[in-house]
Every structure is written in C-alpha cells, then in structure tokens.
What we know:
The protein is an alpha+beta fold. It has three helices and four strands, in the order αβαββαβ.
Amino acid sequence: MIKRIIFKRKNNYILKYSLFLLLFIIILYLISFYYFSNREYFIIPQFTDKYFVIPTNKEGEVVDYLDKKSLNNIDNEIQDFDFKNIDELDYTIQLYSNDNFENINKYLNNLLDNKKEIIDHEDIFVFYKKTEIGTQYFIAYKNYSSKNNASEACDLLTIVKSCIILNLQN
C-alpha cells in the first residue's frame, strides 16, 4: 500500500510538471507569435553609397576601362553595307531591330527572299543609331507622311504581328 501511495504521488508530480511545462511553452509561443507578427520583418535602407570607387592613388596598379562610358560600348563597324539616308523619312514602320548587324543582315535576306512578291526592295530602309551603350540597327518599311497613314498601312500589313511606328523627325 505504501508503494501505491508513493507511486501515485510520483505520478501526480510528473503530471503536474508536465502540464505546467506544456502551459509555459504555449504561453511562450503565443507571446513570441504576437511579438513577431506585429512588427516589420526587416528594413532595407536606401543605398546612398557609390557602387564602385576608382582610387586616385593607384600605387602603380593599372586600372582598366577608365575611358569607357559603359561596359557594353561595343562598336560594330560595318563598312560594306549601304545604309539608307533617313533624313527624308517622316513616319515608318519598324520591322526588326537588333544590336547585332549579323542578325539584321539575316533577317533582311530572309525577308527579301521569302516576301519578294509583296515587298519592293526600294521600300525597305536599313539604318542605325549610335548611343552611349552601343549601336542599334533598324529595318523599316516605307515612308509615310503622317502617323495616321502609317497606322492604316500597319493594319493591312501581314509581315509583322504588331507594328511599331517610328517618327524619325523627332
């Protein structure tokens, strides 16, 4: 009988401590959940520093690309191609644009080979614009006197899915 009383007391203590520990964990969890759910997780401050620094005292080390405005300034010099003069163009429809002249040449040859019944070679204008970041080449179709005329022709044009009308006088 004494064993039973001791065993019951032991079970009561274990049960009481287990319940107390479980209750403590639940309360701790609820407090931490409330605390962390009612605050911002993290704040990203605005970046105001310089992205890179070119030192004034290089100590004999050569710093590359000091004279470049952009790392992408790759100048594709195409000497043999006859670019059209676009000074007289008002509004035109852009067919294709790329910064690689080989892609422009492939597209133009493919267009003239496959659509020679529809497109006159004289209606195609190939020109380029140079910027700080490189040269962009364009293939354009016909010269229109107004944006409305170009838009109407664009609706009838079947060689492109969507039209981009360029105003080359601005």
